[in-house]
Design a protein that fits this description.
CATH superfamily: P-loop containing nucleotide triphosphate hydrolases
Strand order of the largest sheet: 1-4-5-8-6-7
CATH architecture: 3-Layer(aba) Sandwich
CATH class: Alpha Beta
Helix content: 25-40%
Radius of gyration: 21 Å
Length: about 210
């Protein structure tokens, strides 16, 4: 199946929450919730924005995800990174997503805000959505994932159910454990190199899927 626009994918129930969230920081929360899909009222061609209905709907949908904001008129840029991620998730769910693809949602967040996002990822899964969670962080993946896939250079290195793999094993795969072992063996032949002091590879990208 090939899509030419994000709208076509969403019509099939597939939504992506991008790493940059695709929000306008200076616009209110409710405007960002309906960005590109605004509700209108009145006869054509003088239809106008149905602001009250959009605010009410946004508030209800955010509360359904456990997100309670005192002021939906505040610029979305004033929210924390975790809150903005959650608004983007709730927006995707409201507009019909059945499969949610999250691209590094916790990459730029601290521990507390990452916890907020992971909680809502789990909430989306419990609502019956399939969730594909792409991340470099094996700890985050393991907390919410049911099935894990590790990709390296376009090939599948690992595909395992949660019951088949431990966090330590998942971390080893994502850190390039096999390659590191081979490299350490090679360098052990080089005089003056203490292989036990070599740093772990922190630049390998991995993906973990949490699918219901």
């Amino acid at each position: 199946m090939h899509f030419t626009t994000p709208r076509q994918a969403l019509d099939r129930g597939i939504a992506t929450v991008y790493q940059d969230l695709a929000v306008v920081p200076l616009m209110p929360v409710w405007r960002n919730f309906f960005l590109g899909s605004e509700m209108t009222k009145g006869p054509w061609p003088v239809r106008r924005l149905d602001i009250e209905k959009m605010k009410k709907t946004a508030d209800e949908e955010l509360r359904n995800m456990g997100i309670v904001l005192d002021n939906l008129d505040q610029p979305i840029g004033t929210l924390s990174g975790g809150q903005r991620q959650c608004v983007a998730i709730a927006r995707a769910v409201y507009f019909g997503a059945r499969v949610l693809i999250l691209d590094e949602p916790t990459a730029a967040l601290g521990v507390k805000q990452s916890g907020v996002v992971l909680k809502y990822v789990a909430a989306a899964r419990e609502r019956g959505l399939g969730v594909i969670f792409i991340t470099h962080n094996p700890h985050h993946a393991y907390m919410v994932g049911d099935h894990f896939s590790v990709l390296r250079l376009g090939t599948m290195e690992l595909s395992a159910e949660r019951s088949e793999i431990t966090l330590e094993e998942l971390t080893n795969h994502m850190a390039g454990g096999t390659e590191l072992a081979a490299l350490k063996h090679e360098l052990s032949q080089v005089r003056g190199v203490d292989v036990n002091e070599l740093p772990e590879d922190e630049d390998v990208t991995a993906s973990a899927g949490a699918a219901d």
